Amino acid sequence: MRPRAGTRRARSAMALAAGLCALSIAHAQEQGRGRGAAQPPAPPPSILGRLPVVDQAAHDRGRAIWASECITCHGSQARGSESGPNIIRSKTVNYDRFAERAGSVLGPFLKGGHPAQTRKSTVSFTDEEIVALANFLRERVNDTMRQSPLFTVSDILVGDPQAGEAYFKGEGGCAACHTDTTRSLAGIGSRLQPVDLQQRMLFPASGRGGRGAGRAGGPPGASRNAIIVTVTPPQGTPLSGELVEESDFYITLRHSDGPIRVIRRTPNMKVVKVNPLQAHIDLLDRITDKQIHDVVAYLARMK
Question: Quick one: DSSP state of residue 108?
Fold first, then answer.
């Protein structure tokens, strides 16, 4: 792979920002330029948080496929090259990264047809090959996270704080949630190092204040960032609580007074989820690397 052009400091900052990945795959989807590319399916309950498990055997198989079919365009680390985009922050790769089954999001995209470097159509990729590639990409994204032994922190403060403030209060929409009285960020520049500011902004569920914040064995309902799900059967009373887990067949929720409830999905069942961190998830789809640097520079000045 090849990092984006720029200074060494900018590249280092981008490495952290890269918490959400990509192939020309996702890029093509987002730009609507893929060859028959399918729209990505709905995101999993959360695309934020801890490192997903990587099947190392599948990863190793995926590395070989990557080298023969993908590396020329997307580089050895999936961060792009002169002939292909960085896919580390693409929607497809990141949704797949947190999907219950590796390849469940990447697979439909590849089956829709995507050019490979040997001119082999990805339509012909087997399920095993897709799972292998998905595990390879999961590892590439994990490598950009702070928990990775490969991650090194350089100078994060390379942005323009004035531009960051303008984005925060304008296009970014951050001020809609973070006010003087609600989710205030006052003094955050004194409490967190710039690298932590950046990670907290991009991946709020990965640190304190994340999805599990406040629970830690504490009273039920203490997690302020929990995803709240309301399940309404075709006939019956709606059930609501903190989303614990969901699959194609079941939804597991925790009621506010503590009990866990497992609900089997049925036809015409209505499921509505409210994620307090959704704005951060949506931000990752549109914020640029420069805007990330600018906002972090602005937040770092909030002493």
Answer: H
